[in-house]
Amino acid sequence: xxxxxxxxGGRYDTVWASPGRVNLIGEHTDYNDGFVLPFALPHxxxxxxxxxxEPGWSVTSxxxxxxxxxxxxxxxxxxAYVAGIVWVxxxxxxxxxxxxxxxxxxxxxxxxxxxxxxxxxxxxAALVELAGADLPMQLxxxxxxxAENEYVGAPTGVMDQAASxxxxxxxxxxxxxxxxxTEQVPFDLAEAGLAILVVDSKAPHAHVTGExxxxxxxxxxxxxxxxxxxxxxxDVAGLDGALAQLDDEVMRRRVRHVVTEDQRVLDTVAALRxxxxxxxxxxxxxxxxxxxxxxxxxxxxxxxxxxxxxxxGAYGARMTGGGFGGCVLALVEEDDCGSVAxxxxxxxxxxxxxxxxxFVVTPAxxxxxxxxxx
Length: 374
Hints:
Layout: E1 14-25, E2 35-51, E3 57-61, E4 67-70, H1 80-91, E5 99-105, H2 115-131, H3 140-152, H4 159-166, E6 171-176, E7 182-186, E8 194-200, H5 210-226, H6 239-244, H7 249-273, H8 280-293, H9 300-311, E9 316-320, E10 327-333, H10 337-350, E11 357-361, E12 368-369
């Protein structure tokens, strides 16, 4: 069932959908003002909205059946992602009318596919329309990020919200996280006979936990010691000199990952522009090795998925998302998806891991208005 079909019957004033995303390459570079290259998934979160006569807002989850009603008070749990959008829009000076909202989703939760950004961006689109606000799409990711950072309490960068809002079908989104400048880079896998196989490791993660925040703090501290605004300002040519200024070995590893990962994004964009899609594979694998060894955010399940995919013919493979679980992307020949997926499932069983989910994805559209007949 699609997310749209899961909405309850009834009349709505507006319905919007925002997708989950995978990040082709560029992990933990976004909050360092760096570069990322995500694309949107076919999986979406849908938010339907209707004005209400009573003050306040309510939000109902199709998945849990729970309804949360709120006014000015702080909201916790899943509904905080919607309440945070109400809060940030009002903070930005927009009058958000009282409304009832319904949420349905087919974005896998807790898999590193940005289910939180999907609900934030769809809720923002619905509420902006109800409010009649003039808020261009290009400006929405920063507001949604602020809601997640300051209201929900997750110290994420802007990539997830930008990808959910701005991605276009058949393209990867080259995003400069400092300026928010974007380029839609063609990413036609089918034309090249390729596919992206996603392996959901079922190893859960949570960005609100301390490990993610600790790595962000380490990067910010390193930037101060190096006298730069953010690690984006250290390039590969100056990396050795920068590392020599840092006494802490852990901090050096964190910096090395971010600086080399930024360069891998630039190299991947160059490969896609030239049509060299298979060349992206080695960059993906190098990215995973850097996340494993320097940023130390992988777990045995994702390392196993990467290793097995490469052993069975993948051009490259890497974990995607914040880490400590989540999903792996493997760039494979289209005809090899089934055999690679089967090999990963067999390896997980042999290691006593929970069975993974595997599915093939193509670059999809970002935030969009949905027309439903009710």
